[in-house]
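Prompt: I keep going back and forth on a fold encoding question. Comparing notes only helps if you start from a blank page. Show me how you would write down a chain together with its backbone fold. Please set it down just below, with no commentary around it:
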Amino acid sequence: MASSYTPLGIEKMATGENAGTWGTKTNANLDLAELLLGGFKSLSIAGGAQTTALTIADGALTGTGQARMIEFTGSITGNQIVTIPNDVETFYFLRNSTSGAYTVQFKYATGSGDTFTFSATNKGDAILFATANDGTNPDIYTLPAGDVTLTGTQTLTNKTLTAPKIGTSILDTNGNELFLLTATSSAVNQLTYANAATGNKPTLTASGGDTNIGVSIQPKGSGTITIDALTFPAADGSSGQVLETNGSGVLSFSTPSSGITTGKAIAMAMIFG
């Protein structure tokens, strides 16, 4: 009986076969097992839109699909498809190091099973399991690719952040502080911001457990508060004073005049004698 091979190329020798070469073949199998468990291969897929078939070499280390991690390289000028034989069942760690804004799809050679695709902008890593779960339409399953990183572009889906929810600040796209957040022990009141549909106004509303809740806005130092181009005084006025505008959007406290002005008195005297 002749040797047979696993879908990943490991030789299964028959009883009484390969007399005198078992050591060589066993060593070859061990080398291949090591490559399949933790080996690395770099594969250029440079060029226009095309399909690149990863190969399995029986009893040898030369197959392009016989490694735990495979890095795709090269300048691509069209969308790429990389396939594996339909009977391959293993984990793959893939890295997309190609240049060019085109997709790289990883799938079985035939069938309509699940596939994985690096988007045109995703020059990152992926952990995949080739299931060989169906002889006609086998699936490629995508596994979590590890921790969220500060520099990676990643999408969180159905994840709950525990403590802290956001932190002590919210930063802008340049990494500068946009909002500072201060925690209050046993807080029950807060601000609620609501967006709005066309023709309506967004709202910032006090909300919480208390029945009556005000909103406090405090400038720093001698700074002032400007709302809708109106600048309010930095300090309170005196009792009985009113807000007065200078006509340029600056409000200040002033004491309203009382009684009849001199001009009005003269006019009344001329009219009524």
Observations:
- The chain has three domains: 4-143, 161-216, 222-273.
- Residues 22-38 form the longest helix (17 residues).
- The helical segments are 22-38, 262-272.
